[in-house]
Design a protein that fits this description.
104 residues; single chain; mainly alpha
């Protein structure tokens, strides 16, 4: 799982359960209170796993505030930009493009 191999943060047990369900391909929803780590932990890990596993995939993070997307979500994503698994990607202000080879 990407959490153990490429990401240096330690999600809470409930976050791990959500991420494991997501990785397994189950329809997954996270109904969580504010400031529980959705934007800082869950969504960045899920997005990076998606790009790592499926380099041509697109992950869409929607918010009613563009500032949240820029200042919280992409700020959380950018913590991982220099990790070896993600260093070759293109990191823009509101977009990350994977450079991982596509496995046929």
């Amino acid at each position: 799982m990407i959490i153990r191999n490429h990401v240096t943060i330690q999600p809470y047990d409930w976050q791990c359960q959500i991420l494991l369900n997501y990785e397994a391909g189950f329809q997954t929803a996270a109904a969580c209170a504010n400031f529980t780590g959705k934007t800082s932990t869950l969504f960045p890990i899920a997005s990076l796993w998606l790009l790592y596993s499926f380099p041509r995939a697109r992950a869409m993070y929607l918010s009613s505030s563009g500032a949240q997307v820029r200042n919280q979500f992409f700020a959380s994503l950018s913590r991982f930009r220099y990790r070896p698994a993600f260093a070759g990607g293109t990191w823009l202000e509101n977009e990350v493009r994977s450079s991982m080879p596509v496995i046929q």
